[in-house]
Design goal:
single chain, alpha/beta, Rossmann fold, 3 domains, 61% helix, disordered N terminus
Length: 364
């Protein structure tokens, strides 16, 4: 390696640290220095960078010795690790999102062939969209499909808990994930953009942004980096350009809600009824209400549909669609022993409509 190139890759102090760790330090410290070197090398010599990482992966004792990075003072773990990742059912996304995620999996399964041809699989993915639409679920699904650990870093938590050493901790996390075949999820990615306008500790925050953006630029090896944000409008345009793939996950359509309910084993007529009343809701909310309704139905002898609507009314503080509100009022008056004709007069609807709603919600 030419002398001028070697100096650009690591500083004099870093070369000395690498040498000392190799001679006198722990395997973990030496591996951390080698991973740092491989990241720098990846820009000009990706084959050499991959060769270094491959040598690290060959040492089973070293792989066993590596441990989840911790904050130096608190000894608190910086990453949440999940392995194996197991999902109870197939996620429901819109077809463009599903096809894009399928392509990422296919690329990583054929990564060796791509590298032999001088190409790389998708290395970095940015997922955006409102809460509950499946961003975190997508990272879990990718890790499950690739059969690798999922490492989750909540950037908002790291910034709040360790501000002042965030850059140092972030480097530990990135080095660790780069050296371990995995999916790294950077949750609350917009936390960096949100805080950049803060007057407090601006210098540290700018350093953090630089560390993060440089890491995305130079991401290499056998780890997939996934970032998730609920607030894409807060991200700097430069951040968007650094990702190989950017996906926007939208609030589910009526058809998506139907498919989701079908995955949960609901009969077609019940699934259709619920889907029509839940259009525009996140699937995370729908799943939470499904669980609560199943418990209520079992314990209180209600029909599932009545239990579901009652759960929605309770948890949303009465803010539900006009149809759900009407149906629950009909059921409540019926349980107070009012006749169908009395309910119809009270609500200004037809007698057959009241009977139909009672039959449907009572499961008769």
């Amino acid at each position: 390696m030419p002398e001028r190139l070697s100096r650009k890759i690591l500083s004099k102090a870093e070369w000395l640290a690498l040498f000392r760790d190799g001679l006198y330090g722990s395997k973990e410290a030496f591996a951390r220095q080698v991973r740092k070197l491989s990241v720098r090398l990846a820009v000009g010599d990706p084959e050499m960078a991959e060769a270094l990482l491959a040598e690290l992966r060959r040492d089973t004792a070293l792989r066993a010795f590596q441990s989840n990075p911790v904050d130096a003072d608190s000894r608190q773990k910086l990453l949440m690790e999940t392995y194996p990742v197991i999902l109870p059912r197939d996620p429901v996304w819109g077809m463009p999102v599903r096809h894009a995620l399928d392509r990422v999996v296919v690329e990583w399964q054929g990564a060796e062939r791509l590298r032999e041809a001088g190409m790389q699989p998708t290395r970095t993915v940015l997922l955006s969209g409102p809460p509950g639409v499946g961003k975190t679920l997508a990272a879990h699904w990718l890790a499950m499909q690739l059969n690798v650990p999922l490492f989750t870093l909540d950037l908002a938590t790291v910034m709040n808990s360790f501000l002042g050493k965030t850059g140092q901790n972030l480097r530990l996390v990135l080095d660790y994930a780069l050296g371990t075949k995995s999916v790294l999820l950077l949750d609350e990615f917009d936390a960096v953009a949100k805080r950049r306008g803060d007057d407090s500790d601006v210098g540290e925050l700018k350093r953090l942004v630089n560390v993060l953006l440089q890491a995305i630029d130079n991401w290499n090896g056998e780890s997939l980096l996934v970032a998730a944000t609920n607030h894409p409008e807060l991200l700097d345009p430069a951040a968007w350009r650094r990702f190989d793939l950017a996906l926007s996950l939208e609030v589910p359509t009526l058809d998506m809600v139907r498919r989701y309910l079908g995955e949960h084993g609901l009969e077609e007529d019940v699934a259709d009824e619920i889907a029509r009343s839940m259009e525009g809701e996140s699937l995370a909310n729908v799943e939470r209400w499904l669980r609560a309704a199943r418990r209520a139905s079992l314990l209180h002898g209600q029909s599932f549909l009545a239990a579901f609507y009652a759960t929605v009314v309770r948890e949303r503080g009465g803010k539900v669609s006009a149809k759900v509100d009407r149906d629950m009022r009909i059921l409540e008056m019926h349980e107070r022993k009012l006749s169908a004709r009395e309910i119809a007069r009270e609500l200004g609807i037809t007698h057959p409509t009241v009977q139909s709603v009672i039959k449907r919600l009572k499961g008769g």
